[in-house]
Write a structure and sequence with these properties.
six-stranded parallel beta sheet; binds thiamine diphosphate; 597 residues; 25 helices; 18 strands; alpha/beta; single chain
Length: 597
C-alpha cells in the first residue's frame, strides 16, 4: 500500500499523467543528473520505452534525443559530442540490427578512448531463446558478447534489481582510465517495468563518479626527476591523451627549451606556430619531427599521453638508442606495452606530473642551472619550410603544392586556404582516407584543441557523424568536416541531421572520383589497380536536395569567391564539393611501410 502511494507521487514528477513512471525514466534521470543533454540514436522496437522516457524528460526541459540516420552515425555523433564537451557521450539503439549497426561507431570510440555510454535494447526476457524477431540474447546474435570486444564494460540487465548498479558500473567504466565506451543491454520488459520507490534515489554526488582520481606513481616520478637532473637536452612527443595536462606540459617545454613533436592525433593540442613545435611524427608526418628522434644531442625523450601506436611509432620500437632515451608518461598503464624497452614508465595525472617537473626545473634554475637554447645549426633538423603560412619550424614535403595556383586544386593548397580563411574558433574534423594525410601534413589550424581525427580505428565516415556531434556540443561555432567522396557516399545522409538541427557544419568533400587512399596505396605498394573508381557525383546538388547549401568548387577563383563569413554565420550546413587534383600524391609513404608493401 505504502509503495503504491509513493508510485503515484513519482508519476506526478516524471511521467505524463496517463502513464506511470517506468524504469526507463530512472535511466533517463541518472543521465539528466550527470548533465547529459543529448542522446544520439535511432528508435524503434524494443528501445521505445527509453524513448518514451526521453519524451517525458524533454517535456520537463531535460535531455533530448538526436535522431541519426544510421546507428553508426549516432555513435560517431556521440563521440564527437563527448570530445567537444568533455562530457559523457550517450548513444542508443534498438536490439538486433540497431545494435549491430551501432558497433562500428562504438569500436571507433574504444580505439580513441572516448567515454560513451551505449544503451541497446533486448527483446523481453520471456522471449529469450525462442527466436523472437531481432532477438539478441546469448542464444541468438549475442550483442552483449559483440560489444565486449570493443567496450570497457558490456552487460545484460537480466533482472530489474540489477539496473541501477549495472548502470553505475557502466558509467564508471566509461571514465577509465583509460576512458572508453561501456555497453548496457536492457530488455524491453525491464525498461517499461513500473518504477517503484525502492528502485533508487539518485545520489546528489553522482557527478563525482566521473572524476578522474589518478595520482602519480611517486616512485617513478622521483626517478624521472633524477633523469631530468642529469639530462642535457630534452624532447617531448605529445599524444592524443595530453589534453588534461597540456598547459603544464607547455610550461615545462618552454622552461627547458624542449622541442615538441606530436603524433597525428596529438597535433591537436598544440598551436602549430608554437616556437617549440617541430611537427608530426609518423604517418604523413614531417622530416623536422623525425630529425628530433635522430638528434644525438637529445638525451631524454618524454612520450606523453600517447599510445605510441603504429601510425606514430612504427619502426622505432626496435631502435635501441631511442628506447634508451625514452620515458613513457601516461595516465594509465594501458599503453606501456608499446614501450617495453623504454628507460622509464611513469603513470599518473599529466597536469600533476608536469607541475612537479616544472617546479624541479625552476628550483634548479634558482640554484644556477640552465637549459641550453636550441641551436638550429647543430641540430639534425631538416631545413625550414619555405612556403608562406606554414609554421617556420616544420618541414613540408611539397611546399610548392601548399601555395600552388594550379587547377585542379592541389589538396595542400586547399588545406592552406581552409586554415587561413575560416575563423579561429573553427573546429576541424578530419575523416579517414587521404584527408588524414593532407590534413596531418598541411593543415595548420590557428587555434589549438580544435582539430580532431579518428585515426585509432580509422573508420571511413567517422568524421561526418563526429562533425554533427561536435556542432551540437559547441553551438554557434563553425565545424569543418574534411571528408572524401567515398566516405561521404557511405554516410552522406547524416548531413540531413545537420539540416534538421540547423548546425553550421561545413562538409568539405575532396572529390577525386576515387577511393583515393586505396588508389594511391595500390600504386605506391605495387598492387593491382582495382576497385577504387567512384562515379562522378554532384555532391552540391545532393546537399541541396537534402535542404543544405551546396557549392561546387572547381577553381581557385571559386574558392576565393566563397563568402566564408556568411557560410559560418547563416544557420544550417553547407557542402563544398571541391574538385581536387586526383593525381597529387598524398604524403603517406610511411603507411605503406607499415602495411609491409
Ligand atoms: C569503414 C571503412 N571501410 C574501408 C576502409 C578502408 N579505406 C581506408 S581509406 C579508404 C578510401 C577512402 O576514400 P575517400 O573517402 O574517397 O577518401 P580519399 O582517400 O579519396 O580522400 C578506404 C576504402 C576504412 N578505413 N573504413
Amino acid at each position: 500500500m505504502k509503495e503504491d502511494v509513493q508510485q503515484i507521487q513519482l508519476s506526478d514528477d516524471s511521467a505524463s499523467p496517463d502513464r506511470p513512471p517506468e524504469l526507463g525514466d530512472l535511466v533517463v534521470e541518472y543521465l539528466e543528473q550527470l548533465g547529459v543533454k543529448f542522446v544520439f540514436g535511432v528508435p524503434g522496437g524494443a528501445i521505445e520505452p527509453l524513448y518514451d522516457a526521453m519524451a517525458r524528460s524533454s517535456r520537463r526541459g531535460g535531455l533530448r534525443p538526436i535522431l541519426a540516420r544510421h546507428e553508426a552515425g549516432a555513435a560517431f555523433m556521440a563521440d564527437g559530442y563527448a570530445r567537444e564537451t568533455g562530457k559523457l557521450g550517450v548513444c542508443c539503439s534498438t536490439t538486433g540490427p540497431g545494435a549491430t549497426n551501432l558497433i562500428t561507431g562504438v569500436a571507433s570510440a574504444f580505439a580513441e578512448n572516448t567515454p560513451l555510454l551505449v544503451i541497446t535494447a533486448q527483446t523481453a526476457l520471456p522471449k529469450f531463446g525462442k527466436r523472437a524477431l531481432q532477438e539478441s540474447s546469448c542464444t541468438a546474435v549475442n550483442t552483449v558478447a559483440m560489444f565486449q570486444s570493443c567496450c570497457r564494460f558490456s552487460s545484460l540487465v537480466s533482472h530489474r534489481g540489477q539496473l541501477e548498479s549495472k548502470l553505475l558500473s557502466a558509467i564508471m567504466a566509461t571514465q577509465g582510465p583509460p576512458p572508453g565506451p561501456a555497453h548496457l543491454s536492457i530488455p524491453m520488459d525491464i525498461l517499461c517495468a513500473p518504477r517503484r520507490m525502492r528502485d533508487g534515489e539518485l545520489s546528489p554526488r553522482l557527478n563525482s563518479l566521473l572524476k578522474n582520481r589518478i595520482l602519480a606513481d611517486l616512485q617513478a616520478l622521483d626517478q624521472l626527476c633524477v633523469e631530468l637532473d642529469k639530462a642535457q637536452r630534452i624532447a617531448l612527443i605529445i599524444g592524443d591523451g595530453c589534453g588534461e595536462g597540456i598547459a603544464q606540459l607547455l610550461e615545462f617545454a618552454e622552461l627547458t627549451n624542449a622541442p615538441i613533436i606530436s603524433g597525428p592525433s596529438g597535433k591537436r593540442w598544440i598551436d602549430p606556430h608554437h616556437p617549440n613545435y617541430v611537427g608530426v611524427l609518423g604517418f604523413a608526418g614531417h622530416a623536422s619531427a623525425t630529425a628530433i628522434l635522430r638528434d644525438e644531442g637529445i638525451d631524454l625523450i618524454l612520450a606523453v599521453g600517447t599510445r605510441l601506436g603504429e601510425l606514430v611509432f612504427s619502426g622505432w620500437e626496435e631502435d635501441a638508442a631511442l628506447q634508451e632515451k625514452l620515458v613513457h608518461i601516461d595516465v594509465s598503464t594501458a599503453h606501456f606495452h608499446r614501450s617495453p624497452m623504454a628507460r622509464l614508465h611513469v603513470c599518473g595525472t599529466l597536469s600533476g606530473i608536469f607541475r612537479s617537473l616544472a617546479e624541479r626545473v625552476r628550483e634548479a634554475c634558482t640554484r644556477g642551472g640552465s637549459w641550453p637554447e636550441p641551436d638550429p645549426s647543430e641540430s639534425a633538423a631538416a631545413p625550414r619550410a619555405v612556403a608562406s603560412n606554414a609554421p617556420p619550424q616544420i618541414t613540408l614535403k611539397h611546399p610548392g603544392s601548399f601555395v600552388s595556383d594550379a587547377v585542379p586544386i592541389k589538396p595542400p593548397r586547399l588545406m592552406n586556404e581552409l586554415a587561413r580563411r575560416f575563423p579561429e574558433n573553427t573546429r576541424f574534423i578530419i575523416d579517414a582516407g587521404n584527408s588524414w594525410a593532407w590534413a596531418t601534413h598541411y593543415l595548420f589550424p590557428r587555434s589549438s584543441g580544435l582539430y580532431r581525427v579518428g585515426m585509432g580505428f580509422g573508420s571511413m565516415a567517422w568524421g561526418i557523424g563526429a562533425a554533427v556531434g561536435t556542432a551540437i556540443g559547441c553551438p554557434g561555432s563553425p565545424v569543418v568536416c574534411l571528408t572524401g567522396d567515398g566516405s561521404f557516399m557511405m554516410s552522406s545522409m547524416e548531413l540531413s541531421v545537420a539540416v534538421a538541427e540547423q548546425l553550421p557544419v561545413i562538409f568539405v568533400v575532396l572529390n577525386d572520383q576515387a577511393l583515393g587512399m586505396v588508389k594511391h596505396g595500390q600504386r605506391m605498394g605495387g598492387g593491382e589497380p582495382i576497385a577504387f573508381e567512384l562515379p562522378p557525383v554532384d555532391f552540391a546538388l545532393l546537399a541541396r536536395s537534402l535542404g543544405a547549401r551546396g557549392i561546387s568548387v572547381r577553381t581557385l577563383e571559386d574558392l576565393e569567391n566563397l563568402d566564408i563569413e556568411k557560410i559560418c554565420t547563416t544557420p544550417g550546413p553547407t557542402l563544398l564539393d571541391v574538385y581536387i587534383d586526383p593525381e597529387e600524391v598524398p604524403p603517406m609513404g610511411s603507411r605503406m611501410k607499415t602495411l609491409g608493401r
